[in-house]
Write a structure and sequence with these properties.
- With about 300 residues, the protein is mainly alpha-helical.
- The protein has a domain at about 95-290: Orthogonal Bundle (MetI-like fold), CATH 1.10.3720.10.
- It has 14 helices and no strands.
- The radius of gyration is 23 Å and the shape is elongated.
- The protein starts with a helix and ends in an 8-residue tail after the last helix.
Length: about 300
């Protein structure tokens, strides 16, 4: 019986992988995201200059706001730092914030949603009322408020985004567990004397991982956008550490906006491409892992 279940599981994921491969946008998203991850990991080898140091021209003067050239592919910023190098290192920061923040929110949301869905009654009421309270506040404004009360840093940004963005995951996990907890394999585990924690984490959660993975993927794109917004407003990642958001913040002067477009266009397009690629992957995973398509 276990063998048949294993074969069925393998066939489901095999079919899901085949469906995912047919989604051209999802494959494009995977390629772009892997390229961004590779550039973030190998940033010290790829970046032509130190992202924190100002560069000088042939005359020994600071090369400030120079246009794109063979020496500086995207030009230099207002203090003479190479824009391309900062863009590469900023990808490392923005992706790290997205992954860490989402990891925090997924863990919190999964644990609280599991408790609410499995135990029900007063446990469900208390947790879901907490969810309702957090949802009452617009996420971005709540994060901005908390960030202004704390010392802005990359670590503060990660933690704050993670601690505020767990509500959707909690509601999703709760809904899935409400459907799964009455299945026969759960009742069998109870009859065999399995503890509630073992039933939740060893039997129920593995059967609802597909929607959690999709949720995590889509939330990563949202976290990157939130980090960029916070950094742009000056309450996120602080200078001189580069992030796509604070690179946009540097380009707020009319002179740069009008005559130095690469300074704001490059981080802006990096955010757009990253978020689009992650959303395409999330949509592809959602379609591939949809049980309704299991026989297609």
């Amino acid at each position: 019986m276990k063998k048949g279940h294993k074969q069925k599981s393998q066939s489901f994921y095999a079919l899901a992988f085949r469906r995912f491969k047919k989604n051209k946008l999802a494959l494009w998203g995977v390629f772009v995201l892997l390229s961004l991850i590779a550039s973030a990991i190998f940033a010290p080898l790829i970046a032509p200059y130190d992202p924190y140091m100002s560069v000088r021209n042939d005359k020994g003067m600071l090369d400030i706001l120079s246009p794109p050239s063979s020496a500086h592919f995207l030009g230099t910023d207002s203090v003479g730092r190479d824009v391309a190098s900062r863009l590469i290192y900023a990808g490392r920061v923005s992706l790290s914030v997205g992954v860490v923040a989402v990891s925090i929110s997924i863990v919190i949301g999964t644990v609280l949603g599991s408790l609410a869905g499995f135990f029900g009654r007063w446990v469900d009421s208390v947790i879901m009322r907490g969810v309702d309270v957090v949802i009452c506040f617009p996420v971005l404004f709540l994060i901005i408020t908390i960030s202004t009360l704390l010392k802005p840093s990359i670590y503060t940004t990660m933690i704050v985004i993670g601690l505020v963005s767990w509500t959707n995951t909690a509601r999703l996990v709760r809904g899935e567990i409400l459907k799964v907890r009455e299945f026969e394999f759960v009742e069998s585990s109870r009859a065999l004397g399995a503890r509630n924690g073992r039933i939740i984490f060893r039997h129920i959660l593995p059967n609802i991982m597909a929607p959690i993975v999709v949720q995590a993927t889509l939330q990563t794109a949202q976290a990157i956008l939130i980090e960029a917004s916070l950094s742009f407003l000056g309450v996120g990642v602080q200078q001189p550490i580069p992030s796509w958001g604070n690179m946009l913040n540097e380009a707020m002067s009319l002179t740069i906006l009008a005559f130095k477009p690469m300074i704001w266009f490059s981080p802006g397009i990096a955010i757009v491409i990253t978020v689009l690629s992650i959303n395409f992957i999330g949509d592809g995973l959602r379609d591939a892992l949809d049980p309704k398509l299991g026989n297609n």
